[in-house]
Design brief:
Distance between the termini of chain B: 35 Å
Number of helices of chain B: 16
Order of helices and strands of chain C: EEEHHHHHEEHHHHHHEEEHHHH
CATH superfamily of chain C: Cytochrome-c3 Hydrogenase, chain B
Number of helices of chain C: 15
Strand order of the largest sheet of chain C: 1-2-3
Chains: A alpha+beta (195), B mainly alpha (365), C alpha+beta (376)
Helix content of chain C: 40-55%
Strand content of chain C: 5-15%
Number of domains of chain B: 2
Number of strands of chain B: 0
CATH topology of chain C: Cytochrome-c3 Hydrogenase, chain B
Largest sheet of chain B: none
Bound molecules: iron/sulfur cluster
Number of domains of chain C: 1
Number of strands of chain C: 8
Structural class of chain B: mainly alpha
Oligomer: heterotrimer
Largest sheet of chain C: 3 strands, antiparallel
Radius of gyration of chain B: 21 Å
CATH class of chain C: Mainly Alpha
CATH architecture of chain C: Orthogonal Bundle
Order of helices and strands of chain B: HHHHHHHHHHHHHHHH
Shape of chain C: globular
Largest interface: A-C, 33 and 34 residues
Distance between the termini of chain C: 31 Å
């Protein structure tokens, strides 16, 4: 008798599972798939959604808010930001010469944004960041500044930088002099190789 | 023309007649006819597998609240075509230390056995490629050649997981074949023939699933379970068991050789469903209820081939439904289930059938 | 060898047959390599090899400030990111004497329980897949998606949240947070019944898990197993109850305990844990102060005073403990992580002996291993 009860109970369990799957099969309205690239236009990401960092521009002056203080560089756990700065002769303030963002190393942790006291850095939700090679992920964030155009030849090799060495190349020097003629100083990520 | 759709036997007869006239001898006509059949069957196999794979993916998708393939073609109907092209275009690898001859032979063996089975299926009146008076027995015999291919493939791959998978599948298929065969044989005394067309014709008054008292239903249940196991489908897919054996016997196969295994699996599903439909559900015979002539005539409006494929489609859906609901059994449980429950049950069923037939217990006589 | 089923006979001179399970194997879930000694289908012994995703996180901690280490703790057991963050936050708070605002404590509880649920949802789906049923995987992920959406709305990220920080949480929750979470709890409660319908009630699952892979409480304790793996054996040990942290003492919930210690018990315990987590979340939502600070003022670089600090949390897989040695600088002198997965994995060879390959998969699945947590 026991075996019959067991068989029946087993059968009931199997059938109820089948009922469940058939229930979903019969109700196509329950489908939850989102057809991603097609629904790109209607895609809604939460405000806070963070995928990468970006510099904030001042709407009035058209300049980046960043004053190249280097706090974000210090805050970053993964040395994902490299920063060189110069003094703007007009405003007598420091400005980033090149704000290099190593997205390939970035943890998207948001610590840099938190560290920035000047409302110069933000997280964006632009998540389509795939690239063919890690080099493509290195980006100059202040790319609108005329002196920081797409020249990436001298970046990306400084995983263990020497603090005393100036990393200026001749081409870049002339570039800078043309535009600004100001002195420059490099802020490098701090060296965290174990002592 | 229209009547040919309903009376396919007439179509075949006329065709044979015409061919005999054209070629001048009955033998030549037969040769031509067989060549046509082989060509049609080959095309049918490819198409069938593609459609079944597509349906499987859609069924799986919707059972899981997904949509399945959507990108290639409208609602993804060309997806399997694209996949086939990919599989054909891929390089067929043979592992270095594999037994190359057997390794390459195995998928052919599996495929050929499924392919051969198809030629006995009665699609429509008169439409069987080989009419054979022991068709049912023959199909059961041929189907078990497939397991040789699986064993050989697993063994020749020179991969420990493959060997495990092959051994499992060998043990499993051989065991479950017994139940499947016994379940079918239990119905045989009722119609007293092994020819598929005659089996269908014997169900004019009602399908055997209910005409054979109790035996039909029980036989159908046993056959469904056993045939699912024979096809290596969940919940009996221990031979592949990708979460255990990383693919089992076909771990090392790629490209076309893999496609053959895959194709054979889907053809097998079709074949077991077709057998089930033929033996238990009247094959291409439309659904008839004695006395309700108007209703019967409405049912007759559908051509037999539609009835056949409709029934098969329902049964195939059930097999797919199993797959997307159930987890997999363990190998020893599988054996216990077969030898301790299913086998005795099918023997009892056979005995019951014998009693029922000798006592003349038929329904809807 | 106490767990060998009665019907298994092993010839002593059987030729040894070794198979390599992993590092690329569908059911090791990550890069775990098991060397399995087989006699036919029967597992005679298992040797786990780990370290494929070893990143040296403990050593990295010595070069990172307290703030900077948070993102890395999320990457230990990525399914209990909040709990791991919390453990580190608690250690820092203990060291630097930081008071956490009440609202933040509640948010931490809600987040932790949500991530426990999401972890178990994922486990449930993967468990089904390991046993050969694909559909649970999708259902589990379907429900997990909702939790992830809640996380994304508040923390901005879906998996490695880095939301809990020293002194509270990084920012206040999203304005829809309470509504979303309540909606989720109402939605998910019936879904657990659906899980029951699909898997728990299934006779195949029961046959494959009941009595399989019994880990008796004594062995479990010896190997230092924690979490559902331990509680399934009848040991009522839950950090939230036995060594309460945060505001857990204010919560009314039961630890899920079973007695058999087999795979089925581990399965049942996890399902029950989801229900209890829902209960905790509801209470926390009722009690949470509507307004208030969520983060205590902390310096950007927190100095860790001389001393030894220990913090433990109940992560989804068991007790996650963190031992911090400070020397008065901003960089810690030493950080030791005790991950639940590592101890649980060490009990695996003992548990699977004498079972079949398919059972090895079941047992491994019910141990719920996450490799980055084990390798660190
Ligand atoms: S912290 Fe802000 S202002 Fe300072 S360098 Fe970074 S982005 Fe610029
Ligand atoms: S998000 Fe984190 S890892 Fe990325 S740049 Fe900012 S601080 Fe560095």
């Amino acid at each position: 008798m026991n075996i019959f009860v067991k068989t029946l109970r087993g059968l009931k369990g199997l059938l109820s599972g089948m009922g469940l799957t058939f229930g979903y099969f019969a109700r196509p309205s329950k489908v939850i798939t989102q057809q991603y690239p097609e629904n790109r236009n209607t895609l809604k990401l939460p405000e806070r959604s963070q995928a990468r960092i970006d510099l904030i521009k001042n709407a009035e002056t058209g300049r980046y808010n960043c004053i190249a203080c280097g706090l974000c560089v210090k805050a970053c756990p993964n040395n994902s930001i490299e920063l060189t700065k110069f003094k703007d002769p007009e405003t007598k303030k420091f400005r980033p010469e090149k704000f290099v963002y190593h997205f390939e190393r970035c943890l998207v942790c948001g610590l840099c944004v938190e560290a920035c006291k000047f409302d110069a850095l933000r997280m964006t939700s632009e998540f389509e960041t795939a690239a063919w090679s890690p080099d493509d992920l290195v980006e100059i964030l202040n790319k609108d500044d005329p002196w920081a155009h797409d020249d990436k030849s001298d970046i990306g090799q400084q995983t263990a930088p020497d603090k005393n060495e100036q990393t200026a190349s001749p081409a870049r020097d002339t570039d800078r002099q043309e535009h600004t003629g100001a002195e420059e100083k490099t802020i490098q990520p701090k060296d965290r190789s174990p002592k | 023309m229209e009547s040919y759709i309903y009376r396919t036997d007439k179509l075949i007869l006329d065709l044979t007649e015409w061919l005999t006239e054209a070629t001048g001898s009955a033998f030549a006509a037969e040769v031509v006819k067989m060549s046509i059949a082989a060509a049609v069957l080959s095309a049918f196999v490819g198409l069938l597998a593609m459609i079944l794979i597509y349906i499987e993916r859609k069924v799986a998708g919707h059972m899981q609240q997904r949509v399945g393939p959507m990108r290639v073609g409208p609602h993804g109907i060309l997806q399997t075509v694209a996949d086939s092209i990919k599989l054909v275009a891929k390089e067929g690898l043979t592992p270095k230390n594999a037994d190359a001859f057997i390794f390459n032979l195995a998928p052919l063996l599996v495929f050929a056995s499924s392919f051969a089975c198809l030629s006995f299926i009665p699609f429509s009146p008169g439409m069987t490629i080989v009419s054979f008076n022991v068709g049912l027995l023959f199909i059961l015999g041929i189907a078990s050649v497939g397991v040789l291919g699986i064993l050989a493939g697993g063994w020749a791959s020179n991969n420990k997981w493959s060997v495990l998978g092959a051994m499992r599948s060998g043990a499993q298929i051989i065991s479950y074949e017994l139940s499947a065969t016994l379940a079918l044989l239990a119905i045989v005394p009722f119609f007293g023939t092994l020819d598929f067309q005659e089996i269908v014709l014997s169900q004019q008054k009602g399908w055997w699933i209910w005409r054979a008292p109790g035996v039909g239903l029980l036989g159908f249940l046993i056959y469904t379970i056993a045939s699912t196991a024979e096809c290596n489908r969940t919940p009996f897919d221990i031979a592949e068991g990708e979460s255990e054996l990383t693919g089992g016997f076909h771990t090392e196969y790629s490209a076309m050789k893999f496609a053959m295994f895959f194709l054979a699996e889907f053809i097998n599903i079709f074949i077991v469903s077709a057998i089930s439909a033929t033996v238990f559900f009247g094959g291409w015979m439309p659904f008839h209820i004695e006395g309700l002539d108007t209703l019967n005539r409405v049912f007759d409006l559908l051509p037999p081939i539609v009835w056949f494929f409709g029934k098969v489609a329902c049964l195939v859906f059930v097999v797919m439904w199993f797959r997307w609901t159930f987890p997999r059994l363990r190998v020893d449980q599988l054996m216990h289930f077969e030898w301790k429950y299913l086998m005795p049950l099918s023997l009892i069923n056979l005995a019951l059938a014998a009693i029922a037939v000798s006592a003349g217990l038929y329904f809807f006589n | 060898m106490s767990n060998i089923p009665a019907d298994t006979s092993i010839e002593p001179d059987f030729e040894d047959y070794y198979v390599n399970m992993g590092p690329q194997h569908p059911s090791t879930h990550g890069v775990l390599r098991l060397i399995v000694k087989l006699a036919g289908e029967t597992v005679l012994g298992v040797t786990p090899h780990i370290g494929f995703v070893h990143r040296g996180i403990e050593k990295m901690a010595e070069a990172l400030t307290a703030q900077q280490f948070f993102p890395l703790t999320s990457r230990l057991d990525y399914l209990s990111a909040h709990m791991n963050n919390w453990a580190w936050a608690m250690a820092i708070e203990k060291a630097a004497g930081i008071e956490v605002p009440e609202r933040a404590e509640y948010i931490r509880i809600i987040m932790s329980e949500l991530s426990r649920i999401s972890s178990h949802q994922l486990w449930w789906g993967v468990f089904g897949m390991d046993l050969g049923a694909f559909t649970p995987f999708l259902y589990g992920f379907r429900d997990r998606e909702r939790v992830n959406d809640i996380f994304e709305k508040t923390c901005g990220v879906r998996l490695t949240m880095n939301y809990i920080c020293a002194g509270g949480v990084r920012e206040d929750v999203d304005r829809d947070f309470e509504k979303d979470v309540r909606e989720f709890t109402d939605y998910f409660e019936p879904m657990i019944d659906e899980y029951d319908r699909l898997l728990s009630g299934n006779i195949i699952i029961q046959e494959r898990t009941k009595g399989v892979g019994v880990l008796d409480p004594e062995t479990a304790k010896q190997y230092g197993c924690t979490g559902p793996t331990l509680r399934a054996g009848g040991v009522d040990y839950d950090v939230r109850k036995n060594r309460p942290y945060g505001l857990y003492p204010r919560m009314d919930f039961k630890t899920a305990v079973a007695t058999e210690g087999d795979s089925w018990a581990r399965y049942v315990v996890r399902l029950e844990e989801m229900r209890q987590s829902l209960k905790i979340i509801r209470q926390a939502l009722d009690q949470i102060p509507a307004e208030g600070p969520v983060r205590a003022k902390t310096p950007m670089n927190i100095k860790i005073p001389d001393g030894h600090y220990l913090s433990r949390v109940e992560a989804a897989r068991g007790e996650f403990a963190l031992y911090l040695v400070g020397n008065g600088k901003i960089l810690p002198q030493r950080v030791k992580l005790r991950s639940p997965g590592f101890s649980n994995l060490s009990a695996l060879p003992e548990t699977v002996k004498g079972w079949r390959i398919a059972d090895l998969v079941t047992i491994m699945s019910t141990f719920d291993l996450v490799m980055p947590d084990i390798d660190r």
